[in-house]
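Cross-posted from the bioinformatics board.
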Amino acid sequence: ARQHVFLLPEYLKDASKKMKSGLMFIKLVNPCSGEGAIYLFNICLQQLFEIKVFKEKHHSWFINQSVQSGGLLHFATPMDPLFLLLHYLIKAGKEGKFQPLDQVVVDDKFPNCILLLKLPELEKLLRHVTEERVNPEIDKKKYYKFSKEKTLKWLEKKVNQTVAALKTNNVNVGARVQSTAFFSGDQDSSGKEEDYIRYAHGLISDYISKELSDDLSKY
Amino acid sequence: LLPCEVPVNQPAPVGRFFTPAI
Amino acid sequence: MDLSELERDNTGRCRLNSPVPAVCRKQPCALGVDEAGRGPVLGPMVYAICYCPLSRLADLEALKVADSKTLSESERDRLFARMKEDGDFVGWALDVLSPNLISTSMLGRVKYNLNSLSHDTAAGLVQYALDQGVKVAQVFVDTVGMPETYQQRLQQRFPGIEVTVKAKADSLYPVVSAASICAKVARDQAVKNWKFVEKLQDSDTDYGSGYPNDPKTKAWLRRHVEPVFGFPQFVRFSWRTAQSILEKEAEDVVWDDSVAEDQEGVGRITAYFDEGLRSRTRLPHRYFQERGLAPAATL
């Protein structure tokens, strides 16, 4: 049987112990490309993780008393589910009307997207990127519509947080280096603010559509 | 993690033949 | 013979030597070089030198160190013991080359073939004797490869010494025959006491003579080939016999330098992506590209 090697945050270990199906690998949309991608969903903590894979040629694993070809190394990193919800809200937003969430987050290519509706504090999250309406007559149900300028404001916050993280983690945002091997610890950390913002915008753009990325760049 | 591709997924007597060196 | 160093780590090489007889530092000596275990696909190859003053060659001959090939293993052991007893005029030194050292030399990225390894080992032992102050006047060596080149190389390396490289030197010169006995005793003992770090299954040591054409040896190799790891390190992986069994029974392992992919080929393929497609399929951000990270599309 195929085996995979994962780097996971330590606290997830007992999540898989507490509930057999505590952790689920699910296929959802990649908000940048629209293609499918694997995510890890933590049912207990209702948390979403993106999975990135380190892939280099001519590698394999010895795992205990077995050998596993490919030598892939998977990383699970917590991801803000709003990037995924945004993908559906923008699609629905094109119709220009307010809709209930369970009519927005539907996807026959990735049916598991409905798991996103179970996330805690969803309404709080949605306030960052949508206008909402409550229809008093019908069962107090909430209706949402994608709001571009709220979203851009939210993304701007993300970019600023990312700039701060790039600085504390000493990520080289200057001229492109051929390989991480050349990263020198003391690279000119005085990297211009402009470079940090451009780099952060590029990173965030890996989680939003091209169109939104261009809007954000102008914004 | 090996610097070579062993193109199989199967049991192997790793403990007998392989001593990881730090 | 104390081969405990080899028993501790049998993946490199180990050198053994007798004390240097005082007379060998005073009088001109003859020195013989020979090896044991050059042909087998199993176990170490041993190079040995034996030296004694020219004036005592008759005594060495009297020890009946006749052509070592005609001696049985027990006769060799007894003779070796005799030589040690008469240690006041006979000196020896050995260099035990493990199968792992032989294999990794021959299969390394920079090829270091068996002849070069042999020549360098022999010359290293002669140098050792000189460094110990032995007054080496003559060196006699059994041929390995082309005698002329070998003779030339050794003569160049040791200009002040009369070098003779000759076929069947071990039956012509007693010092070579004595060296041959030392080498064979060491090899036999190393093989007999071989420690399989791979914890051999059912410690099956029924491998015959170790020579490639010995059916017992071939059967043993086939019994102990492991698809991922090949053989225990007792086996010389660089031997044709071992390689042909690996090609049949073991997995093809690919190293990054073993597939010298043609770089321009890669360029050519991307040339087929029309510009639009490439710009549309947005590449991951450089943060991820520089770290070899990509979204996992499947598990």
